[in-house]
Design goal:
By secondary structure, this protein is mostly helical. The protein has 16 helices and no strands.
């Protein structure tokens, strides 16, 4: 009897549309992040540790750019789409594509300007080429990301999953071809990403062309609205990027490309949990915002707490696993050039706990329309990076960078928790 009841509950859970959506979100994020991770593994195994260092520096700038897109475009879009009548959403969707291209263009120009500086560096052998290749790739990567975020914002998960599977398969086919012919390089890896994103984005736009109304878009108005909503998030992202994504570059300037590659390998393995946390954000961001609008702050706070309790044990188990076998894992995945990194990956993994706990809290602050909280807690992380992380990196190399990275994440999330609880209490007193 108990077994039958359990089977019925499992069947009910699996046939629940909400459960199916959550599974698809996690599956999509696994495809998206997994393809990025495997691209790094291919580059690390096919090329030298120095070339992997160049590739990882390019990836850090790509993530930097995509976070800016998320801050200035995707997050405001998610907020505005749920407050826009359905008949006007076509223009909002079309405007988001144009804004993504404009932002990508600005980012590409900055990378082009930085390339000659990188070429004159003391250890440069190909970093300037990586920067130019990334600049050319960004417009196509931004458009693909724009489609993904629109799918998630409107709970159209299956289309995001289909697009990401197609793009990832095409990208790996291109990478395999470059590897087979002996022409693979960090710059060509970004070229494969761009070409796959271009074809996938074009196919998506063609299939959904009736959902976009370029005649009704108002790019100037949408840009002003996004800046008004996202200006605090932009300040926070600048601090966030400076505090956490600066570490590969700190290692590069302190110890060179080989050490930067070793740190990036540890960082990439720790980020294997990214599909979970990013999938969580993609799924819960609209849900938390919707709960705040329809049911109030108290209901939203309960949802945020449940999310924290759901993520905490996963993060704890992962940290334990990295302390036990992280060094061996790095060597198995990337090769014999990546040895003696057990301490580094263990220290980097400590950042997972505060990052996981901070994700629901940050979504809660955004749902309460308090984006000004964002730069405050990220500023704490940046201060820790400047005052503690930088000297640790230049003194102890990779181990110091790993310790600084974990400290910056912990300090920022602790500050976010305090600010979030204070804001919840204020709203409940009204």
């Amino acid at each position: 009897m108990t077994c039958n009841l359990l089977c019925k509950k499992i069947k009910s859970l699996l046939t629940n549309p909400k459960t199916q959506n959550a599974v698809m979100v996690l599956g999509d994020q696994a495809v998206y992040s997994g393809s990025s991770f495997l691209t790094g593994v291919i580059v690390g195994r096919a090329l030298s540790i120095e070339a992997f260092g160049e590739f990882s520096l390019g990836i850090s700038l790509m993530i930097f750019s995509l976070i800016l897109q998320d801050t200035l475009l995707a997050t405001p879009y998610t907020y505005h789409i749920h407050n826009t009548p359905s008949e006007n959403r076509g223009g909002l969707r079309a405007g988001a594509i144009i804004q993504s291209l404009l932002l990508a263009g600005v980012s590409a120009l900055l990378l082009a300007a930085a390339a000659p500086i990188a070429a004159s560096g003391p250890e440069n052998t190909g970093l300037h080429t990586v920067l130019l290749a990334l600049g050319c790739a960004l417009p196509f990567l931004f458009v693909r990301e724009c489609f993904r975020r629109q799918f998630f914002a409107e709970f159209n998960i299956i289309n995001a999953l289909k697009m990401d599977i197609f793009v990832s398969a095409l990208m790996f086919a291109l990478l395999a071809g470059f590897w087979w012919t002996g022409t693979l390089s960090p710059a060509l890896a970004f070229g494969a990403m761009a070409l796959a994103a271009t074809i996938g984005g074009a196919a998506t736009l063609l299939a959904r062309r009736t959902d976009y109304d370029f005649k009704k878009m108002n790019v100037l108005k949408d840009t002003k609205d996004n800046i008004l909503y996202g200006r605090w998030l932009l300040m926070g992202s600048a601090c966030h990027l400076g505090s956490l994504y600066a570490y590969p570059w700190l290692v590069y300037f302190a110890s060179g490309k080989a050490e930067a590659g070793a740190f990036a390998a540890c960082y990439s393995l720790v980020n294997l949990l990214n599909p979970l946390i990013l999938g969580f954000n993609n799924y819960f961001r609209p849900k938390i915002m919707e709960t705040r609008i329809k049911e109030g702050v108290a209901a939203m706070d309960r949802l945020v707490r449940r999310a924290c309790l759901l993520l905490l044990p996963v993060a704890g188990l992962f940290v334990l696993a990295m302390f036990i076998g992280g060094g061996l894992l790095v060597r198995i995945v990337y090769g014999e050039s990546f040895t003696g990194l057990g301490t580094v990956i263990a220290l980097v993994s400590l950042s997972v706990v505060p990052v996981f706990l901070g994700a629901p809290l940050q979504l809660g602050t955004l749902a309460m329309n308090r984006p000004q909280i964002n730069p405050k807690f990220h500023a704490v992380s940046l201060a820790i990076t400047i005052l503690i992380g930088t000297p640790l990196t230049f003194t102890f190399g990779n181990a110091g960078a790993a310790a600084g990275y974990a400290l910056a994440a912990t300090g920022g999330s602790a500050t976010l928790l305090w600010l979030y609880r204070r804001e919840v209490r204020k709203n409940q007193e009204i």
